[in-house]
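REVIEWER CHECKLIST
Item 1: Sequence provided? yes
Item 2: Single chain? yes
Item 3: Sequence as submitted:
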Amino acid sequence: MKITILTAFPEMIENYVSSSILGRARKNNALTINIVNIRDFALDSYGHIDDYCYGRGGMLFSAVSLEKALKSASENFHGGKRPFVVFPTPEGVHLNQDIVEDLAGQKEILIICGHYEGLDDRFVETAVDLKVSLGDFVVTGGELAAMAVIDSVARLLPNVVGSEASVTNDSFYDGMLDTPHYTRPEVWNDLKVPPVLLSGNESEIDTWRRRKSIERTLKARPDILARCPLNPWISSGAYVAEVHYPVLGKNGEVCASGFTALDLHDIARAARTYGIKKYLLITPVKEQREMAQKIKDHWTKGWGASYNEARREAFSTLKICASLEGAIEWVKEKEKKEPYTVATSARKRAGSMGWVAVKRHIFEQDVPPVFLFGTSWGLADSVFETASVTMSPLLGGGDEYNHLSVRSAVSIVLDRFFAKK
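Item 4: Structure as written out by the authors:
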């Protein structure tokens, strides 16, 4: 990656990027950092790059000087193509790991450091691609924020940080805060290093660290849980159940419904995509189970398995069950834990819980979640009565109408719980 910084105080940036990890990365050509002095493009022989604001206010960087500096810097990029321009400003979006990862995907970045009242807004509107902020406070200039952007982006680039684990285990990389860390001496001021870290058992240490990361995040930053995927933080697998009995008919009667081949294909593909351990198809009708098994065999053992390897992998998640109770018992036996059943509904129900709160409960209890999706006109009341929790319905931006297919509902819910945001 190539990063260019436009600044009126180049020595501030140079001192920082010449030290430690960034300094080594530059020497090893893992990262190119160019620093451009905006004063080299002054408005006059006195070196002015700023002027008074129209109306009222203090000094403002001139659009003329900034444009000249940007054009000059762009000539050093591929074919004179303008780089991706970042401007640190209080009105920018708060810098977070998602933004940092997006920036790390750029080939060339240019960061403009403002001072005084900032930059002429005409330049900002025409030249800046992204405004970022370190938080709701004001500093003297943009150099501090620029250094934060450079450092956080550089860590994600190949051959910059020596150990890849140092990056992947950092706070926010997979959504959670980092685990607590300790070093010698083993006892300091009567405080001991947790015994598990001295055990040498890597499996137990990994489990302890995972739980401590979750506990620390739940206590200090519960607001970031929405963007954190359940996998790989829970110790058990996760399951999706497409329930065809007991469900409601059009007139509110309890009945059994039939599946479609499209259900099997789409839900199996969603389950495979989001790392679901098993997609449970629940139907008491023998003929339906036999038909589902025939379709599964075609894609996992028959001609379809060799024709489409990806579909074979998706259908390998499918397990066909005769009853919901039997499926839940199977999960319990498999995971050696009581499953946490999440009943879903297209209608609001008393006592339902929002998806972020449900996600927090799963993290707190470290239990195997089973997401129950009804078919026909929805799950029967008996399912809600025995479920661990009822999740609030998926609602759009208009009214409370919800007529999503079960396939769509499954994909949306899995994305909320298992996708890295």
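Item 5: Key structural point noted by reviewer: The chain has a mean pLDDT of 93.
Item 6: Recommendation: ____
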